[in-house]
Amino acid sequence: MRRPSRADRTPYRRICINQPAQPQKYTNNYVATTKYNLVTFLPKALYEQFRRVANMYFTLVAGISCTSISPIRPITTFLPLAIVLGVSIFKEAMEDVRRYQADCEVNRRACLVFSPAAGAWQKRRWRDVRVGEVVQVASDSFFPADLLLLASANAEGIAYVETINLDGESNLKIKKALDATRHLSPDTVAGLQGEIHCEHPDASLYTFVGNLLLGPPGVHALATLPLSPASVLLRGSVLRNTRSALGVVIFAGHESKVMKNATLPPSKRSSVERQMDIVILFMFALLFAMCVANAACFAVWTQNLTPAMWYLATDSAPPAYDPDNAVLVGVYSFIASFVLYGYLIPISLYVSLEMVKVGQAFLFINSDRNMYHTETDTPASARTSNLNEELGMVHTILSDKTGTLTCNVMEFFKCSVGGVSYGTGVTEIERAAARRAGAPLPADPGAEPLSGGGGGGSGALGGCAPGSHTKGFNFADARLTGGAWQREARPALLREFFRVLAVCHTVIPDGPEEPDKIRYQAESPDEAALVAAGRAFGFFFFRRTNTTVLVREGGADAEYEILNILEFDSMRKRMSVIARTPEGKIMLYCKGADTVIYERLDTGNPLNAELRPVTRAHMEGFGAAGLRTLCLASAELDPDFYDEWQDKYHAAKTALARRDEAVAAVAEAVEVRLQLLGCTAIEDKLQAGVPETIANLAAAAIRLWVLTGDKQETAVNIGFACSLLRTDMALYRVSAEVPAVTELEDTGRFAEAAAVAAEAVRQQLADALLGIEAAREAAGAYDNGGDSALVIDGKALAHALGPDMRQSLLAVGKACAAVVCCRVSPKQKALVTALVKSTGVVTLGIGDGANDVGMIQEAHIGVGISGQEGMQAVMSSDFAIAQFRFLEQLLLVHGRWSYLRITRMVAFFFYKNLLFGLTIFFYNIFCLFSGQILYDDFYMSLYNVVFTMLPPLVVGTIDQDVNCATSRCFPGLYQAGVKNMYFGARALAGWLVSAAFQAGCMVAMVLAATAPTIASRSDGSTWSHWEVGTLLFTEVVLTVHLELATVLEHWTWLHYFAICFSVGIWFAYLLVYGALPLWISGNIYSLLIGAIAPKPAYWLILALVPVACVLPGFLLRSIGRRLWPGDRRLVMEMQVLGRHATKPAAAGASPAVAAPAQRALRHTVSVNTGYVPSEAPGALGYYTPRRSMAQSAEALGLARNSLRHPVIAALHEAAVADPGRVCRSSSSSRTLSARNSAFGKLSPESSVPASALDRALQEIKPLLY
């Protein structure tokens, strides 16, 4: 971290404009993003590598091998260590070289800088720009540093800036020069003098606090002018649609805001990696135990037996073999064993894991056409490959709504003004509610829009493409359009309402000043929709200057002088504009959330008393229709009061310390005694495929929490429309908006209201938990919460997240299948995510906007959606997709595959290393633990990095059990990852026990077959020491690859090549290395050709021993799969058997599912699972939650049996046809019969009617094939 400079320790930053020297020392504009330089590269790179405990261990072993105690040569330990470290360091070097080249390109860019000494403009490189200098930037050029905008080629001092490199937003931002400097030009900038007092550099892109002090010969008199972010041009952004701009450098180089933001994202490690650390610790413990056992046994043997062995010359033995010092002998033996048995730890595991994860990301996730969004030309992107397998273990998804589940394409749809509701359109949410209730569908007026209006309906659910109506306006009601509003009961109130729409905003008009051609540049789609509505109602906003807004009202242009803008933020939840109207009045126009507007209404105004309940009822109705609501209000300000307030506001705006708090406090003083005008209702359609995706995720037993800023009724109805909520669910609502709280707030007793609300929330949570537990007891253990949902609003959540209620909220949330949090702030999103994360389950946060960044970074996995709100969420995410529906493919297919691949690869690594290490240990038992080596040094060195390297890479990259279509048709398969069934204790124990058994069996068989009393050739020669070692090592290589072959489920030419290549390269090594001169090849000189190959026993042993070692485990797994098949096994067999099915698909099959599955079945799949516990039928979630599967099947258009466990479906139909069958059959025979029946292989002796089982088969097969 950079040491704070003396300038950083001063109260504020002082910059002199156009001065050769600054009063404080600031950094230059040179930037470097490299991690290393020529001096620090090697030390830092080695430090990064040795942060891994395994690398430290192997270095220690290599150091010990240099001593006389080591039984192996140093080169054989240093060689694999050097290969592993070399590959990792080379990768680091290449990445840093690319960063250095990019830095050089940026630092060498040219720009125009005014030189006060020369009195002229000079071209300089970016790296030579200094703080306080004036820079001229041309159109379509990057800003070289953070600048204060002085002037632009635009007469109003406005510059259009593209910030896509900073926050990902493609819409142009408007930057405004101060009135005191916007007259400057390149020819007059020499006379500019003054100082800038501002805050010290920070990482906030959206805040800036400072003052500009101008003196002679600047403006006419000394002035202190407040500076805001609207006048700051940030490094990394681009000047657009403006010929040129002048700015003074305020932050340069690494002090610029973009460089302050150049920090690494939060470090995230997957659950498998964390568990892998535990397994490595277990292997270390096993290694330690083996070393202790070896040392103890050898010390005892040396002390008790060696004195009688005269041929060992124990009198002159070295300390390591001195029978008179057993303790020292044990210490030496422990150190030697530590080196000899060190192959238990896989040295190449970390490097292999990195290579595999990168391959998974680029070959599968980034290249998947099923996650490619054609409309925006956006593919999926794995921004990090560290969490691939974590995608297959997600228990809870925390999702934003707007822009994530919806399109974030806002359209003005309805409104309420003066207590009257306007708008006759019918939303798709209302249609869905009517369908659920069995009521007649609301009539769609289908009226043609008037005066640029939109149609009456909202269009199809899930469609985001704009229709024929005006963008942002989809309103139909003849009472308001075409000037008809003037004939309403309260035209004055309507006029004020429309003026708020046209004036209270920060929108910038672009293009011709004509209603049909103008375009609005807005910070949010909501704001653009409101301005478009004002235009449609006859209040056409067409021009903005620094101080005015021009609105065409009824054909006449009206100029509003903008006095102040009180901006919106997530804490205020409102924005206000103070303007001088054409009539000379000073008006405050305000819009915001109903909760904050209602708190600021004039309680003494009888009109407010009349409108409050009516408008609240209308907002609840709009919310029930799935619309987003905003309240609009206004107030006329007394000129004397405003002048007094303006002085306070100016003081707050020029404060250098705590400016935001001061401005907010002053704003509170003026946003009071408001007159309620009404509310707006904006529609945001669901994205295509959202209901189907949520239904399939629910079928995979993944919990979903939706965190939204909408009102409760809006969120609930959208939850129903997108299949998150169901009518058969018990819906528990927790709200702080109880009547007692409302009464207290209406009278201004907010402290008492907060206390009552907290107690109400506590009681509602307790009641919800009791209700869920009662329902669970009534349903039995079969129900796991799938029939319950929780809805909680923002005020209630503020109390529920407190330390005294946090656990209650968590208990209720865990017991529900779905949770909807309404009126949630960005901070609350992160807090809720942290709360769910604290339970230990894997969480996934998904969102599309800057307000979702905290949630995305807090979750185990962050997924960003590249939507209408820019790319902030994507830039902070681990994975990026274009639409929510792609989440199903990302989790149920790629996540599940990655989890399966990574866990199998890691388990195989530990298996093969344990087997190899135990062969050395078991052989030493026969050698009385003397530390005798059996293998040549290079055998052991190359075992991990050459002879067994390729197959794990192939398995980890492209292995799979079922194809993409099958994975999505049977979402319950996903639960294997959530329950960690393939890398749990039982699964790992299977691999490790098999390694121990096979090592012992292998050593015993080889030593028995190569006994010294057995002649190996016709000349009577016996097996030599190195011949036995080579034979045993060959058996190790063959056995581990044969074991892998028996557990593979997906074979491609790469699998065949990897296994054959690894075995072949071992024999090639023996052949080539043995042919080298004796001084090089040493122990294995001409060993294969001259000694081993001519022995027939060698080839016979090679053929028998691997089969004998692997066969018992293979048979046990086969028996288990046959008698107790699990869900995954059954689905795999269905896929294999269905590949050869010739019967046509059933009439009720879903083409959307059947067709992709038929195209995807291209590979033959074996019937092996590896060391995975045989789960009980249904354990993967096919029939839990109890009712969610039927709903999911209905949403997907599938038959109910398509998502049920096929064995359960077949058994159910068989039991209906023949109830006595269950009593006459054993458990295993029932399962076997049902399995055969489900696949159309009816046993001749079975009494089950073939028709019932054939129906089960015909219902299942068309969905896949």
Descriptive overview:
There is one protein chain. The protein has 1265 residues and is α+β, with helices and mostly antiparallel strands. Helices cover 45% and strands 14% of the residues. It contains 42 helices and 33 strands. β32, α24 (872-875) and β33 form a beta-alpha-beta unit. α10 crosses α11 (525-536) and α13 runs parallel beside α17. Mean pLDDT is 80; it is low at 217-221, 446-462 and 1140-1265. The chain crosses the membrane at residues 278-301, 331-353, 906-926, 938-958, 988-1011, 1023-1042, 1054-1076, 1096-1116.
Q: Report low-confidence residues grouped into runs of 5 or more.
A: 217-221, 446-462, 1140-1265
Main sheet summary: 9 strands, mixed
Strand runs, count: 33
Which structural class best describes the helix and strand composition?
A: alpha+beta
The number of helices is 42
Radius of gyration: 37 Å
Terminal CA distance reads 59 Å
In round numbers, the mean pLDDT is 80
**Relative strand content:** 5-15%
Shape: elongated
Main-sheet strand order equals 14-33-32-31-15-27-30-29-28
Helix content percent band? 40-55%
